[in-house]
Specification:
Blueprint (H helix, E strand, L loop, with lengths): L2 H14 L17 E2 L5 E5 L5 H9 L6 E5 L13 H18 L3 E4 L1 H11 L19 E3 L2 E3 L7 H4 L4 H8 L1 H4 L11 H7 L5 H8 L7 H7 L20
Parallel strand pairs: 2-3, 2-4, 4-6
Antiparallel strand pairs: 1-3, 5-6
Helix pairs in contact: 1-3, 2-6
């Protein structure tokens, strides 16, 4: 057992014996994380259920390709929403788990997990809860961390009509499993290594949601695009 495995095992032991909040009084088993410790993607949710497996299948992603954990480490009575102090009580555990896994992209599912992760990495989440859905499916880069918030799978129980839209958002997970195939020869890589380009462009596109990159689209179609064109299609004359 290596150091990371030992650290995760010790963390799970602390979670199982935690008495920081009221949930410990009714806990029958703790909700510890599971999956590939070397995965590029870490999902954080509240009881995602079997619908998540369905979304994974439709997105072409296997559970062995991700690491999954829970925002709150105990089952919530009657599947109620978590209270602020319960989320806070588990924060230390979540922070340590993220540090051990060290994922390239954190994927919070739903409002509570997204709000928590955006707060941790100082990403803008000033929108009211009713507008959080506008964040889902968009890749963010804040405090050197990539974040892809997605709708909670339970949304489909109450709104089956959202299935197609939700599935499309979950397909971004497969994109994030590997870098853009053009990255090794992309001028963006050269500009970044030469100190002329901000890291965010590389993380958000070349090593992130490369399918949304205008350069990638044009490369795939064999269309000319200048070396000073940024991934969003705008031109940066300073890169000439």
């Amino acid at each position: 057992m290596n150091k990371r495995q030992t650290a995760l095992k010790d963390l799970h032991s602390m979670i199982r014996t935690c008495e920081k909040c009221r949930l410990s009084a009714t806990r029958q088993h703790a909700l510890t994380g599971e999956g590939n410790m070397d995965a590029r993607i870490m999902l954080i949710a509240l009881s995602p259920g079997k619908i998540l497996d369905q979304l994974f299948r439709e997105a072409g992603v296997g559970r062995d390709q991700v690491y999954m954990t829970n925002l709150v480490k105990c089952m919530l009575p009657k599947n109620r929403e978590p209270r602020a102090d319960e989320i806070d009580a588990c924060s230390e555990f979540l922070d340590e788990e993220i540090a051990v896994i060290n994922p390239e992209t954190i994927v919070p599912l739903g409002y509570h997990a997204t709000k928590k992760i955006f707060t941790k990495y100082h990403a803008d989440h000033s929108s009211p809860r009713k507008d959080f859905s506008k964040l889902y499916g968009n890749l963010f880069f804040s405090d050197d961390q990539k974040i892809l918030p997605l709708p909670h799978p339970a949304t489909l129980i109450y709104n089956p009509s959202f299935e197609t839209e939700t599935t499309e958002k979950y397909k971004k997970l497969k994109t994030l499993l590997h870098d853009c195939k053009w990255f090794p020869m992309c001028p963006m890589k050269w500009h970044y290594e030469a100190g002329r380009l901000e890291r965010k462009w590389i993380e958000l596109y070349c090593r992130g949601d490369w399918e949304s990159c205008v350069r990638y689209e044009m490369e795939e179609k064999g269309r000319y695009h200048p070396d000073w064109m940024l991934p969003d299609g705008s031109m940066d004359e300073s890169l000439k």
